[in-house]
């Protein structure tokens, strides 16, 4: 554990990668502690503290929070309280509930068909089958999350424009750090940035609000699968600022903020993780073969796709877990000590307002937990290969110590964990079944280096040579 007051917070800077420092500079300038010890991380994140809950993040740099002057237009930036509880329960009990994910099977299949068609198109139009997979993967994920958010039938051109606007917003995140402290003064000093942020959000509103209004005014069929926005339209939320007021509907601003969060959090993270998975399988053809073998043994050669059965494929799951351990797409988990929290460390109370940072990569690479922690070894998650088959929940600390927490931990743990695991497994399995992925040479070779920013992405977006496999070829490769 490293503790830093105002004067020594520079020490935190020096221990974090440059791109992390620049992305989170607004938060890091405040008093901060970096927790690298797994037992302490477990005690703070999972067990909480005396009195409070230790479930608040520092004031958010998310555009919704900045634009709403911290009136918290989404879940990520909402403080721990009644508003957060109601909106979080809505998300986890409806669209993201693990037992309801089968309802979006058709949307997943459509996104997969579009992705496979796009990759086939790219590899047949390039003389050596070279494909820029990164962009195609992100577009497919955005299309899928758009259907889950707004329902079927959103125009393909509009989805592309929404994806571009979302990407622009995420790229703009680091610049928003200036608004983390003294937001009113910062708006005057950084007028250009403020205007750009307002323009980006206006563009989103112009695209999202007509979709929201259309969902609001349509007649719903009984038994139909709700889109996320339907659940938000029906929701009544308590007012954190005025507890005597009756629960109210979400405002248009809040609806746009929540949809933007759903699309951003659900797309960028999974698309980045999928690239890491495929990049590792390109680098390690024998592992790619092992995944293909497992799929072909479990799925009929005539089956149109590998469906939710991906969740039962042990080797594939081990590859996904190993990617999440070595390349967690969220860089840091943040908490901020609030007045109610009573966080004691080394016999001293950590002052209110202190930011507490949990670096996910280093927490997951402790020599005491993993043998050769820097090596990519999916077998460590396979009981029959001398490893241990552990779930993400167990890895987050059922034994009192955190082993890896790519989705965070405690009350604010990522609500999208189950859907993310399904999406990563589903797309990996089907992409390996449809294509043989081979590494390009020279400058186009796969480069397994990260760029640490708001999300940890590949420094060089994934490219590979693809060969289309017929079902019979795929099965023969296995022999
Ligand atoms: C590989 C994929 C993903 C990773 C690695 C990831 C990681 C994380 C992490 C580390 C956190 C912070 C947790 C904490 O503070 O303890 C988080 C929060 C969150 N994630 Fe994810 N996430 C992923 C996918 C998703 C998906 C698919 C969705 C929704 C569709 C989602 C929605 C959210 C939301 C709304 C929060 C804020 C929760 C709150 O404050 O209560 N995430 N995620």
Automatic annotation (TrEMBL):
Keyword Membrane: yes
Swiss-Prot/TrEMBL cofactor(s): heme
CDD domains: CYP77_89 (cd11075)
Listed Pfam families: p450
Keywords assigned: Heme, Iron, Membrane, Metal-binding, Monooxygenase, Oxidoreductase, Signal, Transmembrane, Transmembrane helix
Location(s) in or outside the cell: Membrane
Main location (coarse class): membrane
A GO cellular component annotation in the UniProt record: membrane
Gene3D superfamilies with a match to the protein in the record: Cytochrome P450
InterPro entries linked: Cyt_P450, Cyt_P450_CS, Cyt_P450_E_grp-I, Cyt_P450_sf, Plant_metabolite_P450s
GO molecular function: heme binding; iron ion binding; monooxygenase activity; oxidoreductase activity, acting on paired donors, with incorporation or reduction of molecular oxygen
Record carries keyword Transmembrane helix: yes
Sequence positions that bind heme: 414
Membrane topology: Single-pass membrane protein
Family stated for the protein in its record: Belongs to the cytochrome P450 family.
Protein name per the record: Cytochrome P450
Organism of this sequence: Triticum aestivum
């Amino acid at each position: 554990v490293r503790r830093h007051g105002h004067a020594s917070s520079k020490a935190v800077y020096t221990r974090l990668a440059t791109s992390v420092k620049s992305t989170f500079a607004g938060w890091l300038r405040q008093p901060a502690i970096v927790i690298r010890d797994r037992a302490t991380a477990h005690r703070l994140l999972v067990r909480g503290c005396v009195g409070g809950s230790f479930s608040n993040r520092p004031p958010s740099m998310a555009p919704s929070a900045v634009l709403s002057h911290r009136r918290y237009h989404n879940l990520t930036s909402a403080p721990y309280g009644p508003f957060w509880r109601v909106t979080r329960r809505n998300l986890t009990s409806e669209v993201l509930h693990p037992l309801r994910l089968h309802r979006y099977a058709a949307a997943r299949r459509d996104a997969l068909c579009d992705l496979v068609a796009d990759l086939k198109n790219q590899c047949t139009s390039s003389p050596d089958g070279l494909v820029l997979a990164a962009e195609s993967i992100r577009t497919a994920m955005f299309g899928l999350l758009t259907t889950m958010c707004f329902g079927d039938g959103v125009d393909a051109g509009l989805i592309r424009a929404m994806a571009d606007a979302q990407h622009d917003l995420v790229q703009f995140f680091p610049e928003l750090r200036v608004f983390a402290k003294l937001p009113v003064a910062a708006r005057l000093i950084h007028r250009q940035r403020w205007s750009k942020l307002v323009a980006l959000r206006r563009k989103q509103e112009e695209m999202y609000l007509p979709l929201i209004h259309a969902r609001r005014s349509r007649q719903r069929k009984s038994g139909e699968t709700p889109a996320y926005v339907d659940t938000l339209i029906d929701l009544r939320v308590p007012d954190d600022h005025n507890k005597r007021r009756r629960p109210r509907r979400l405002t248009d601003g809040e609806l746009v903020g929540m949809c933007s969060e759903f699309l951003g959090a659900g797309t960028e993270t999974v698309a980045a993780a999928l690239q890491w998975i495929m990049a590792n399988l390109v680098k390690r053809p024998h592992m790619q073969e092992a995944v293909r073998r497992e799929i072909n043994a479990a799925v009929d050669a005539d089956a149109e796709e590998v469906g939710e059965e991906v969740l039962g494929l042990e080797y594939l799951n081990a590859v996904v877990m190993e990617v999440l351990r070595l390349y967690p797409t969220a860089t840091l988990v943040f908490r901020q000590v609030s007045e109610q929290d009573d966080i004691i460390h080394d016999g001293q109370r950590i002052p209110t307002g202190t930011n507490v940072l949990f670096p996910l990569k280093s927490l997951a690479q402790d020599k005491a937990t993993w043998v050769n922690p820097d090596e990519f070894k999916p077998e460590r998650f396979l009981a029959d290969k001398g490893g241990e088959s552990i779930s993400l929940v167990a890895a987050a600390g059922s034994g009192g110590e955190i082993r890896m927490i790519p989705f965070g931990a405690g009350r604010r743990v990522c609500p999208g964990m189950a859907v993310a695991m399904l999406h990563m497994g589903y797309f990996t399995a089907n992409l390996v079944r449809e294509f043989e992925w081979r590494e390009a040479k020279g400058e186009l070779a796969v480069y397994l280096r990260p760029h640490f920013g708001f999300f940890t992405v590949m420094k060089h977006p994934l490219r590979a040579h693809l060969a289309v496999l017929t079902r019979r070829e795929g099965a023969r490769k296995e022999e």
